[in-house]
């Protein structure tokens, strides 16, 4: 009956005996899902791959180092028959049939009583695809479905189960692909998105028309008031039962005022989830080929804000101490004050010829990098017309290139 479709079913294997014959790569590939399902797994095989062996050592499976014997499948709920001995596989299949144990066979799908679908899991959904005899197509379909669920392009109707909360989502440095999978998924579930100027703004164009997008940069108040107005907007929408995504550039807690928003929401009794993001402080240097650490070159990196000048009484940064460090200094919000910052670093001991890279609009279409030294950076920034947002990297890592 070659065209009879398989009957799909989800086996609940937790605590139930599963016997796996063979310890090779097929077994290795199948075991993680069986372990994740909580099955009581016995692998029977004289030898095993290092990964299978490691799972036995970790106590995730029991490994009996021997060949298959008649009777091994008697108490099993489910079996995977994957030895390299065809005759043994055939005997084991016959035993599984006799005991009515559903069995998958790696060497002969037609002789098996069960088939393993291509599976994937995301956001509480298990996707299982069976195409009969085309495992590549099954895998490709599985990937397409899982990717679609992850990036929100495939709608998952559980969105209505989520109401009235706020997710603070770190959107990464700007490139639409550099948001996390979780961030992308929550964005796809939003009723309201409050977005900053930085971050993956391209993604906003793709939101369905019913989603209200509030541009936080356009909230008309002074600086301090703007934050209060944003907090108030988050509270008001969440109170009205909407699911609000507060989309921020980079990571919400790296100079992102994320905790202020969390505190206010918590005070108001509104559930809030924080999704970390890829901070520009490490990703923007990486995007232009600068590693913030490199063996033998830099054993530390420090991230500092340069939004207030070093001699400003409001500055919380110990610039003298930073000048004594030999590793990498990453400066955010420092374009305007870079002259005073560079001069302070040099005055307190950092070499004037220390390499500096200024990266404007990293990971975005307009990305550009200009190179200088501590002695020249102020002039170069001025002459090149560098504008925020920019990340400034100071230290010998700036000169470490891919060519080594
Ligand atoms: C208010 S801070 C927010 C940082 C953000 N939370 C993060 O983790 O990247 C804004 C500063 O981050 C830096 N920045 C953020 N995205 C950037 C990008 N794509 N290219 C260059 N600098 C960026 C700039 O220094 C900018 O002035």
What is the assigned CATH homologous superfamily of the largest domain?
Tetrapyrrole methylase, N-terminal domain
Amino-to-carboxy terminus distance = 61 Å
Give the second-level CATH assignment, the architecture of the largest domain.
Answer: 3-Layer(aba) Sandwich
Question: What ligand species are in this complex?
Answer: S-adenosylmethionine
What is the 3D form?
elongated
The portion of residues assigned to helices is 25-40%
Order of helices and strands: EHEHEEHEEEHEHEHEHEHEHEHEHEEHE
Which regions have little confidence, pLDDT < 50, spanning 5+ residues? Answer: none
Main structural class = alpha/beta
Total domain count: 3
Give the key terms.
404 residues, alpha/beta, Methyltransferase, Cobalt-precorrin-4 Transmethylase, Domain 2, 3 domains, 5-stranded parallel β-sheet, elongated, binds S-adenosylmethionine, EC 2.1.1.107, Sirohaem_synth
Tell me what you see in this structure.
With 404 residues, the chain is an alpha/beta fold. It has three domains: 100 residues, NAD(P)-binding Rossmann-like Domain (Rossmann fold, 3-Layer(aba) Sandwich), CATH 3.40.50; 119 residues, Tetrapyrrole methylase, N-terminal domain (Cobalt-precorrin-4 Transmethylase, domain 1), CATH 3.40.1010; 119 residues, 2-Layer Sandwich (Methyltransferase, Cobalt-precorrin-4 Transmethylase, Domain 2). Helices cover 30% and strands 20% of the residues. It contains twelve helices and 17 strands. The strands form four sheets. Strands 3-2-1-4-5 form a five-stranded parallel beta sheet, with helices on both faces. A five-stranded parallel beta sheet has the order 10-9-11-8-12, sandwiched between helices. Strand 15 and strand 16 form a beta hairpin. Helix 7 packs across helix 8 and helix 11 packs antiparallel against helix 12. The structure holds S-adenosylmethionine. S-adenosylmethionine binds next to helix 9 and strand 17.
